[in-house]
Amino acid sequence: MNLQSTIDIDFKRFFQWWGRELAFLIPVGIRRFLSDKPARIILTANNLGFNVSSYLDEDQVEPVFSRFFEFSEREVFETLIQQFPGLEKAEYILALNAEQAIAKIVYLPEAALENLQQVVGFELDRYTPFTAEQVYYSVAPLAKTGYGQIQVLLVLSPQAIIDELYGQISLWNLQLSRIEYADLHAEFPQLRGQYNLLPDRYRTGTDKLAESVHWLLNFLIFVLMLAVLVYPVWQDKQAVDQLKNQIKTLEKETRVVDAQQMEIDALRDQTQWLINNKVHTPEIIKVLTELTHLFKDDSWLTNLQYSEMHAQIQGQSPMASALIGVLEASPYFSNVSFVSPLTQDKTTGLERFQISMDVIANPPLPDAAVANPDNATSAEPQPESDSGKPHE
């Protein structure tokens, strides 16, 4: 074989081998039930009678029974067969020995493969001492040699021998399916059933209806087994798809809930900011009231700036330096200091001041105010209006 040669695959033989290998995975009982191949009864003949061996299937090694029957023991044979229901529809195979048949390997051109039986018949006298009219013969291709030739197995038996044996078998009301050469099975096990020495005139047609019904039943069984395997998977897939749809619906609802939750969180944050701002920011009216209470009638403010818990005041007072202590003593203020030096107003003769201080949001109440909060509230000083001086 060279690299230029084409690879020719015998798909029929490949699938036959593949089917036999897969058959080992199936239990024997089921394999026998599904198989279209009946049990086998192999007959080996001599001058006195038949040696009979029976097998329930082609994979069985040990026979169900094996014994010799004389030609006159037909009724004994029929009685024995009735004891084995599985053999009632068995096929009968006549196995020839070396004295009854011969086999030979011949080489022919590949073109002869299309009509192998006829080609061998034309040249049978070249390969054997017989002519096609003297023997029954059968051929089976073995392999390609790679040189444009094929290797062919030729099996033949004299017509007189087969006719005589067939006549003896007919007396037993048995119908042969095949005639084989038993000595070939050990050397060429793959050829079992690939050739047949039984003449065409002795063969009976196969029951096509029975075969069709058998294959139809096998197909239905296969479909049912496939349904048993596939239906649960299909059901699970449907359940998974249904769950996926439910999840998608829940995801949409979840997104809506998340959006609402975000809005709620934003509103809560804004509300909390307002609450915190209210809690931590002092009331301006109270700050102004405190300043009015602390400043005497001879002092007043001209400007007040407040931002982020920090206040800055400007004004005039006859004793501006004393204001630092007064403001520090108040629970509303801390870190009180002058922003600029004191100057004297030439018009009023008072000292101009500019003071910076931190405002305390929630100043501690005096003990009296804690003991009587109503009195503390009512005791807050009110600005006096009879002095004629503005208070801010």
TrEMBL record:
Stretches of the chain forming a coiled coil according to its record: 233-270
Region (Disordered): 364-392
Family annotation (Pfam families): PilN
TM stretches of this protein: 215-234
Cross-referenced InterPro entries: ATPase_NBD, Extracell_DNA_Util/SecSys_Comp, PilN
Keyword field contains Coiled coil: yes
This protein's UniProt keywords: Coiled coil, Membrane, Transmembrane, Transmembrane helix
Record protein name field: PilN domain-containing protein
Upper taxonomic lineage: Bacteria, Pseudomonadati, Pseudomonadota, Gammaproteobacteria, Methylococcales
